[in-house]
Amino acid sequence: MTRNLIAILRGVTPGEAVPICEALVHAGITKIEVPLNSPEPLTSIEAMVSAFGNDALIGAGTVLTEKAVADVSGIGGRLIVSPNIDPEVVAATLSQGLESWPGVLTPTECFAAIKAGATGLKVFPAFKLGVDGLGALRAVIPNDVPMYMVGGVGPDGFAEWKRAGANGFGIGSALYKPGRSVGDISAIAADMVASYDAAFS
């Protein structure tokens, strides 16, 4: 089962990337991004792709330039996530055959991302929009456009966000933060998967 959960490993190091990736995949989270402002992010991404590229959709977050897209594509990454909507970055991503998830918050940004051809919308920071705000956006955003909530969301709110029209979530510090053990990450991931399955079943 593929779940619409993206693990955001901001600050992960190459030495821990593969064990953490293994724990996430085993728990059932198979979409994983390493933000490019992490230590040696391309090294981590390449290692995870080598180990689990057939089992997970792995790529980069905080992608701001066309060059960064090319760098990620060159090491086998297939997921490009940004905090903003830049049509040139989206176009570069699509030209490489990768998934494009630009960050949006307003209706103007949402429709700019849709026009650019984004795979889906990363609503960020979701806590600023709120559940009611998402419901208002969903009244005008086409139903076939996936919307993932990122920023201040957690398993306690999965069901409520889903009712408002969310299709998935990006989870950062609630799942991973530097110094957290692989065992703790594994346990947290399992709980998140259980909450997701309960909300979306």
UniProtKB/TrEMBL annotation:
InterPro entries: Aldlse_KDPG_KHG, Aldolase_TIM. Pathway: Carbohydrate acid metabolism. It comes from the Bacteria. Pfam families: Aldolase. The keyword Lyase applies. The keyword Transferase does not apply. One of its GO terms (molecular function) is lyase activity. Gene3D superfamilies: Aldolase class I. Keywords: Carbohydrate metabolism, Lyase. Signal peptide: none annotated. Belongs to the KHG/KDPG aldolase family. Homotrimer. This is 2-dehydro-3-deoxy-6-phosphogalactonate aldolase. The lineage of its organism: Bacteria, Pseudomonadati, Pseudomonadota, Alphaproteobacteria, Rhodobacterales.
